[in-house]
Amino acid sequence: MKSSTYLPVQFKAKDDALAWTLMQEHPLATLISVDDDGIPFTTHLPLHRVAGEGQGLLLGHVAKGNPHWQYLQARPNALVIFRGPQGYLSPTVYPDLVRVPTWNYLAVHCQVEASLIPQAEAKDHLLKQLIAQHEPSYAAQWRSLPTDYQDKMLSAIVGFSLRIVCVESKLKLNQHRPEAHAAMREQYAKGTADEQALAVWMDRLGMGVKP
User: Fold this and answer.
1) Number of H helices and number of E strands within the chain?
2) Residue 211: per-residue pLDDT
């Protein structure tokens, strides 16, 4: 299948488990498909991955007033992007001066095929899976709400499942510049929350030099 992004071999993750980890830690995704005029249309929303046949499913929902569900119904093929931590990299990490700055980041692209979930009971099950991921303690409160209120909330959304057809992880962390890894990790470990998260990912990839 044709790649959905420019992906140099040094930044391509070889283990899909890294993609699942990033998606779990950063569940807010960008769903991209095309509208009736062929123009890209995006929705930012949390998605929950369910492992299963193949590479699994992504579950989510949009407001009924959001036309994106109609575009998915008409043209099921879509692209989902999860973006992880990101940060500037100063050229001071290199042992020589003939260098330039860059920007490091982590992202997962999933090519998907959409199916709508219109039934109230199925949408309720979908919501309970999202609750279980983000705030399990809220489940009891949701179940205790008046039935007519639950029905109103469920009727205001359209659920869907996205079958993952292809997954690509771009982990851009200057893997091809090992001479800078120690200084790079030190710089990130002292930086912003995103930069500190990049240092953690360097360790996961076997790049970090732990203090």
Assistant:
1) 7, 7
2) 46
The encoded tokens of residue 47 equal 């998605």
Q: Where are the domains of the chain?
A: 9-204
Distance CA 140, CA 6 (A): 45
The H-or-E segment that residue 60 falls in is strand 57-63
User: Mind listing the pLDDT tens digit for each residue in 91-124?
Assistant: 999 999 999 999 999 999 999 999 999 899 999 9
How far is the C-alpha of 162 from the C-alpha of 157, rounded, in Å? 16
Is 17:167 a contact under the CB 8 Å cutoff? no
Residue pLDDT, tens place only, 44-55:
999 999 998 889
How many other CB atoms are there within 10 angstroms of residue 21's CB atom? 17
How far, in Å, CA of 111 to CA of 164, rounded?
A: 6
For residue 40, count other CB atoms closer than 10 A to its CB. 9
CATH 3.30.360.10 fits 9-204, yes or no: no
Query: Coil, strand, or helix at residue 116?
Result: strand
The radius of gyration computed from the CA coordinates of the chain, to the nearest angstrom, equals 20
